[in-house]
Amino acid sequence: MKSSRIQTERIVIFQQQAPSGPYIDYDGLPVLSAAESERELVHPYAQMTSGQYITPGGGRLLILTVGMHHEITLDHTGCPAQNHKAKSNAFMRLALAAEGHCLQAGCQHSASYQGGAFRRFQVLTEGIDLTTFVRSLLAIELGDFTPTGILEEHSNRIAGPIQRAASASYPI
User: Fold this and answer.
1) CA-CA-CA-CA torsion for 125, 128, 134, 136, nearest 10 degrees?
2) Distance set, CA 82 to CA 49, 54, 88 (Å)
3) Are 57 and 141 in contact (CB under 8 A)?
4) Which of 36, 83, 110, 113 is deepest in the core (most CB within 10 A)?
5) CB-based contacts of 59: which residues, under 8 Å, 6+ apart?
6) Contact between residue 42 and residue 53 where contact means Cβ atoms under 8 Å apart
7) Could you give the residue ranges of the DSSP H alpha helices within the chain?
8) Which residue has the higher pLDDT, 55 or 164?
9) Which residues on adjacent β-strands are paired with residue 162?
10) Cα gap 37→19, rounded to integer Å
């Protein structure tokens, strides 16, 4: 029953996350709906908590904490600059780094990475710190893959290298 309630909450939040127009320019970012422009613009050095944000790279960030995991959605619909191979690879590496912590803790799920403009991640609450993970996401948006490399190295030390096909999608 709890799983059904959580799924319903996700659907409601995702519906709220992508409202229809009118669309407006927002602080030099790709156009957003009027409702989205009311969301907080996330600061790269801010402490992160569950909520809905707009990122410096123009993405829509949703963070939910469900059980032992943070479920993070980064929506880059309408942001073509965020959808190229190097960034997609870095986002996948970051998801695999998060999976390393999950494997170490005994979780049974696969890496929750879904490529494309609508990216979803699952991060163990006792694994990578939420703020650290989100800062790595924001760094990728801005073209800096160094934080992802650091998290990936740490994950490899605790759980060994985690390999997945670059073109695969992993559901949450």
Assistant:
1) -170
2) 23, 14, 8
3) yes
4) 113
5) 74, 75, 76, 79, 82, 141
6) yes
7) 2-17, 85-105, 130-141, 146-159
8) 55
9) none
10) 11
d(CA 151, CA 119): 18
Give the pair of three-digit tokens for residue 109: 């799920």
Instruction: For residue 51, give every residue at least 6 positions away whose Cβ sits within 8 Å of its Cβ, in sequence order, or none.
Output: 40, 62, 63
- Report residue 73: phi and psi, to 5°: -120, 130
Do the beta carbons of residue 155 and residue 96 sit within 8 Å?
Answer: yes
Cβ neighbourhood burial of 98 (10 Å; 0-12, 13-18, 19+): buried
Written as one letter, the residue type at 3 is S
User: What pLDDT, in 10s, does the model give residues 46-73?
Assistant: 899 999 998 888 788 999 998 888 999 9
Amino acid sitting at position 121: F
- 75's enclosing H/E stretch is strand 69-75
Whether 41 and 13 have beta carbons less than 8 Å apart is answered as no
The Cα–Cα gap between 80 and 88 comes to 12
- Residue 45 contacts by C-beta under 8 Å, 6 or more apart in sequence? 135
Q: Produce one character per residue of 40-58: b if its CB has 16 or more CB atoms within 10 Å, e if not.
A: eebeeeeebeeebbbbebb
The encoded tokens of residue 169 equal 């999608």
pTM value > 0.85: no
Tell me the residue length of the chain. 172
